[in-house]
Amino acid sequence: MTAVTFAPPSPNLALNQLVDRRRAQGDSLIHLAFGEARLPVLPQLAEQLAIGAARSAYGPVAGAEGVRAAVAGYFTRRGLPTDPDRIVVGPGSKPLLMAVQLAVPGDVLLPQPAWNTYAPQAAYAGKQVFGVPIPAEYGGMPDPGALSETIRRARRSGGDPRLLVLTLPDNPTGTLAPPAAVREICAVARAEDLLIVSDEIYRDIVHDPRATPFLSPAEVAPERTVVTTGLSKTLGLGGWRIGAVRFPAGEAGELLRDSVVAAASELWSTLAGPMQQVAEYAFAEPPEIVERKRASARLHGEVARAVHRIAVDAGAVCRPPAGGFYVYPDFEPLRDRLAAHGITDSASLAAQLLDGSGIVVLGGHLLGDRPQALRFKAATSLLYGDERQQEEALLAAEPARLPHIAAALSTIAEGFAQLTRPHPTAPHRTSEESR
Ligand SMILES: Cc1ncc(COP(=O)(O)O)c(C=O)c1O
Hints:
- By secondary structure, this protein is of the alpha/beta class.
- It has 2 domains: 11-40 and 289-434, Alpha-Beta Complex (Aspartate Aminotransferase, domain 1); 54-285, Type I PLP-dependent aspartate aminotransferase-like (Major domain) (Aspartate Aminotransferase, domain 2), CATH 3.40.640.10.
- It has helices at residues 11-24, 43-52, 65-76, 93-103, 118-124, 144-156, 179-191, 217-220, 251-267, 273-283, 287-313, 335-339, 346-357, 387-395, 403-418; strands at residues 30-31, 87-90, 107-112, 129-133, 161-167, 195-199, 225-230, 243-246, 326-327, 359-360, 362-363, 376-379.
- The strands form 3 sheets. The chain has a 7-stranded mixed sheet with strand order 2-8-7-6-5-3-4, sandwiched between helices.
- Strand 5 (161-167), helix 7 (179-191) and strand 6 (195-199) form a beta-alpha-beta unit.
- The radius of gyration is 21 Å and the shape is globular.
- It binds pyridoxal-5'-phosphate.
- Pyridoxal-5'-phosphate binds at residues 35, 92-94, 115, 167, 171, 199, 201, 230, 232, 238, 243.
């Protein structure tokens, strides 16, 4: 019999299971390790789901005409004129991203750090990953100079980088690359003939859209940019699994779309009929959807900024969050004091937060960052409480002051402060799964 080695589950999903287990044992934990937009399902979405129950036929692999037209309209309203034929919908953007990796030859360039799924997907597609450092101001996109240098080194070492994955706004840093940087990166992509995958699943969660200009690489380099999006984050529908991808116009874009549709036909057949009903309604953006997105972006911004302040007050450096629901603090300024507590890298930092304060974070080493760096991702969207408290948080003028959120924030502040308290006790190293 041949042995088969399975990769471990995605670290964020593994930590989520760990939290469930420990909570079931009575532990009180602050869960900052899972990027789920925990908000109540909008009643109109549930109505659409019920109406869609009758859609029990397989239907076209790429999605029915109606849903593809709705997604095309969504992009067109965002300055990306789109024909419905350039849209494919699927069960989440994750499998669509995987299908794109399978369809494009060559290796992958990723910002360092990046969302923890891109690299394993590249490995499944038989690709090498070349990480490129991000600048001090933003993440989700490499520093342009470092990108050129990494491509040169990759080619010298026999690699063949052809695909560049960008995340706008970014998970894990919670920042948005500015338009000038997007233009610079697109110029490098053109010069080096790279295909860009622009993961824009957090696009509608820019906290202050009027103050934060969003430029998609698909506006600058339309001939070579694939855009992915979905409803998991903006409408809190992760478990419903609705994603979409927009391909470039022209022959190369059509070939790529056809390859992705071919992979989809063998992997998932089509997006579930009831979900196509939901997607057609949601991507058309009736007023109640627009309002829910506005309210949730505001809530995510308020709470992410509160956690950012706590990290900075504790002595970390941290890029101010501009989109999504993440912060990515760097405790490097406290390295000496942390070393006195046995904390020397992102794994021991995450382990001490869990064992010492019950705070669950995702160490930067799990996101492709340098393991020695004292960085972690904190997802702030699970702090909104139960369903009733989530409704309350959506409506509150100052959600961070609601008692249940304020209490979680003070536990976080206390946990960060505790990391560097004098008279240390050695960290308990029992949290295998957080390493
Ligand atoms: C950057 C990014 N892209 C894609 C996804 C996948 O989302 P889904 O497959 O639910 O569309 C996530 C989810 O965590 C994400 O953070």
